[in-house]
Automatic annotation (TrEMBL):
GO terms for biological process: thiamine biosynthetic process; thiamine diphosphate biosynthetic process. The gene is thiE. This is Thiamine-phosphate synthase. Belongs to the thiamine-phosphate synthase family. CDD domains: TMP_TenI.
Length: 214
């Protein structure tokens, strides 16, 4: 995967009602137990607070040698020297983002169609986030993406695919016969009663899925 670490178990953060300390402790625990990449996602927050949070999270991810990806905000990514940025359909064009962050940083792009995936790859994306596969509270009324579409996108591009959207321990084995390189989880880890065993179990299942596909 070149400049990227494993995408196997990709944590997308959600702050819910946690205090700052609780939020950082969850990320720390997740990183200790098998998370392979962290995406800091914040939608309703001031730029200054996002920056401060990114600095704090990056201290954790750097310590565990895990890439930190910033959701949407190229400025925050550059300000804290994060490993990369992930953008959705409503952000700046992929080619523009790539020109801003340079060739050394990771660029993830959300894709729901073959056309979007192929163009994103052509314009400089390093990996695609495909979903939402299952119902999720993270994004209200998301357009669901079928496993068939997921596989079709994976077959059409030459960059890794990460499945996202409502992925839980109870449905993760759905990806046994898919061409994914990993899964992204949000509430399954952030809201877990016990983060350590939850991450360990998810990591074990993902590794079995990926090894079984080889």
């Amino acid at each position: 995967m070149g400049k990227m670490k494993e995408l196997a178990l990709y944590l997308v953060t959600g702050r819910y009602d946690f205090s700052g300390e609780e939020f950082l402790n969850i990320i720390e625990t997740a990183c200790q137990n098998g998370i392979t990449m962290v995406q800091l996602r914040e939608k309703d927050i001031t730029t200054n607070r996002f920056y401060e949070l990114a600095v704090a999270v990056k201290q954790i991810t750097d310590y565990h040698d895990i890439p930190l990806i910033i959701n949407d905000r190229v400025d925050i990514c550059l300000a804290v020297d994060a490993a990369g940025v992930h953008i959705g359909d409503d952000e700046m064009p992929v080619k523009v983002v790539r020109s801003l962050i340079g060739n050394e940083k990771i660029l993830g792009v959300s894709a729901k169609s073959i056309e979007r995936g192929k163009k994103a790859e052509k314009d400089g994306a390093d990996y695609l986030g495909v979903g939402a596969i299952f119902p999720t509270e993270t994004k209200k009324d998301p357009d669901r993406t079928t496993i068939e579409t997921l596989n079709n996108i994976a077959e059409a591009v030459n960059i890794p695919i990460v499945a996202i959207g409502g992925i839980k321990e109870s449905n993760i084995e759905t990806f046994k016969h898919t061409a994914i390189s990993g899964v992204a989880v949000v509430s399954e880890v952030m809201l877990a009663e016990q983060v350590s065993p939850k991450v360990q179990k998810l990591k074990k299942v993902v590794e079995q899925i990926l090894e079984g596909r080889e």
